[in-house]
Amino acid sequence: MNSSVSILCNPHASGWDRCRDDLERSASERGHRLVKLDPDDKWLDQIRDTPPQRLCIFGGDGTLSKVVQKLDLEKMLERFELGLIPGGTGNDFARSIGMHGLPWQDAYATATEQPATPIDLIDIQNGSAHLIINAATAGFGGLISGEVSSADKQRWGSMAYWITAVTHLTSLPKYSLELTFQDDTHAKFEVFGLAIASGRYVGGGFPVAPEATVNDGLLDVTVVPVMPVSELLAAGVDTTFGWYHESGRIATFTARWVRVESTPPLPYSLDGETEQSDGVEFSIRPAAMRVACHTEAVGVQSPGAFQTATQSP
Fold first, then answer.
1. Is there a domain that residue 302 lies in?
2. Is 0.85 topped by the overall pTM?
3. Are 289 and 83 a contacting pair, CB within 8 Å?
4. Beta strands in the chain (DSSP E)
5. Same domain, 182 and 275
């Protein structure tokens, strides 16, 4: 058996039944060890006993996020390279690193063999500490995160997330928001929603931060101000097609640290986990994990590239 690679499998992932045979066959052919993730975290004992060089996670973004959180808590994150074999429903982080939609053999080979790239994580403080890999959405994003149906994704594609928000417009609460950045500058808004991201996508492919890259050392902040329904729908189209700078409907910032204060408290979706808070701090943790990314990934900056944090409302 090739002990340098272990495949951590989520048997509850939406793609498990569809991909199980392929996964077991591919692992057997290469001598990779299959380890099932379990609620009691017994999988940790297996990788402690015979630690592999690379852990490849089969599942969705939520599965990867939970594994990363657990490894970080156990002070084991720096020991491993990571790979992601997408098996979830949204696969938003997988889209940023170029792993979504690949043929099975390409996805498996990339996750297990491609050299790993240092990738950022997002630290969150709101009375307790959190760690996420992709994005925090708030306001309508926090409210509708679980309401984008598979049928809507089939019908509307990447616009399904935004259209779901528009259909809830009459019941969407408005929030008074203040952002404070690392240089002590402030920005105030009346908003429907907010996203703070390292990856580009949420809600099954909606580009909430179209210029974000997962290894630039920056948070991408997207603010959705209060606006009429026609403008909100147009803003979704602008963002999907990369026209949001021209339209001026959406405010965007980049920063290494930002504090969000809101009235009333904002509902958040933190990599799919829901919370509510009136004050949250977000900070980027650069190059915190090493992940195999596809060579043509749109959300990964070229190796060695560096970008200085800016704010561009």
1. no
2. yes
3. no
4. 5-9, 33-36, 54-59, 81-86, 116-125, 129-132, 135-139, 175-181, 186-197, 219-225, 251-255, 257-270, 273-292
5. yes
Q: Residues 205-228: what's their mean pLDDT?
A: 93
Residue 45 parent element (H or E): helix 43-49
Are 114 and 152 within one domain? no
How many domains does the chain contain in total? 2
The verdict on 99 and 210 lying in the same domain is no
Active-site residue, from 178, 211, 231, 273: 273
Q: pLDDT per residue over 260-302, tens digit each?
A: 999 999 999 898 888 889 999 999 999 999 999 999 999 999 7
Q: What single DSSP character describes residue 79?
A: G
Instruction: Return the pLDDT at 313.
Output: 41
How does DSSP classify residue 206? B
Q: Could you confirm whether 273 is annotated as catalytic?
A: yes
Q: Residue 145: count other Cβ atoms within 10 Å of its Cβ.
A: 22
Tell me the C-alpha distance between 171 and 21, whole Å. 45
Residue 306 counted as domain residue? no
